[in-house]
């Protein structure tokens, strides 16, 4: 029994010892390799992002300028309409009656004019023969002038009635995409005293990117511009990239043309606008957009691979490998994206330092590693 116990104890000691020896061997030769790159420097044009909105190049309200029942809507909501296309019809009875009345007044005035013209000629002849008094001659001439004035008034009334009658047929003032009707057919349009909006047309063939920048940042922007803006014809910048919350099918850029003449007293900002070509009618008025504007150059900007950055509750950080080949958790302050895959670092690292580029989830602070420079950092 005692010998059996000693034999069992020996086996256990042998196994435990073997495990320890295997573990020690692993620890001695098991320093994991990690891919690293070095922090490099380059001359970088600095950009700053500004939020803005897109507005249609033209936005025109379709209004009813007469009063009457809305008889018809002659378009499909959201469709593209051509300038001059009939969109609505409004009942025109009272305006047709007004035109008829004005035409009748003109006929009456012309009849009176013809009568007083003949009378005035006869009175002048009789006055020359001393058959009538001066007063009678003046009275006939006054009646002729009154009749002529009545003709002019009637002609003006006809033109006004024709204009109002034409407004009963509401046409598209511009070409573009039209909204749904603000009123249903059968409703009363009271537009004679105050024009009533019936729909809105947006010309989205090109749009404006509208945003605001700080006045001091605008001075930096001017200092970095390469284009002469005297005369207001040439753009301040061309092809400024635009970003969207949800990337569209095409890539978009704006040519920066308009700068507001004044700085807002309440915000201390200056409004800028850039023209954007709307490819395949993909963009819409009111979309939110971000524009990236240059404001200076850093000739020795520190650059790392953007994919090597991680984020925690404290912000962005890198896993730096120190001179002892140990991982050091290093918070950093990031700048703009550079060449699509690189990131400018403004604080936290130094040029030449090694940082982990792959398998970030397998390393931890203080861990001993074997750094491998897989590919020289650009």
Please describe what this structure looks like.
It is a single chain. The chain is of the alpha+beta class and 378 residues long. It is built from four helices and 20 strands. Strands 1, 14, 15, 16, 19 and 20 form a six-stranded mixed beta sheet that branches. It has a six-stranded antiparallel barrel with strand order 2-9-12-11-10-13. The longest helix has 36 residues. The two termini are 73 Å apart. The N terminus is likely disordered.
Quick rundown:
Helices cover 28% and strands 39% of the residues. The protein is built from 4 helices and 20 strands. Strands 1, 14, 15, 16, 19 and 20 form a 6-stranded mixed sheet that branches. A 6-stranded antiparallel barrel has the order 2-9-12-11-10-13.
The radius of gyration computed from the alpha-carbon positions, rounded to a whole number of angstroms, is 42 Å
- Overall pLDDT, averaged? 85
Distance between the first and last residues' Cα: 73 Å
Number of H- or I-type helical stretches: 4
The structural class is: alpha+beta
Helix content: 25-40%
SSE layout and pairing:
Layout: H1 2-29, E1 33-38, E2 40-64, E3 67-73, E4 80-81, E5 86-90, H2 93-128, H3 134-166, E6 169-171, E7 176-178, E8 188-190, E9 196-214, H4 215-224, E10 237-243, E11 253-259, E12 269-277, E13 288-305, E14 310-312, E15 315-321, E16 327-331, E17 333-338, E18 342-347, E19 354-356, E20 370-373
Parallel strand pairs: 1-20
Antiparallel strand pairs: 1-19, 2-9, 2-13, 3-5, 3-8, 4-7, 5-6, 7-9, 9-12, 10-11, 10-13, 11-12, 13-18, 14-15, 15-16, 15-19, 17-18
Helix pairs in contact: 2-3
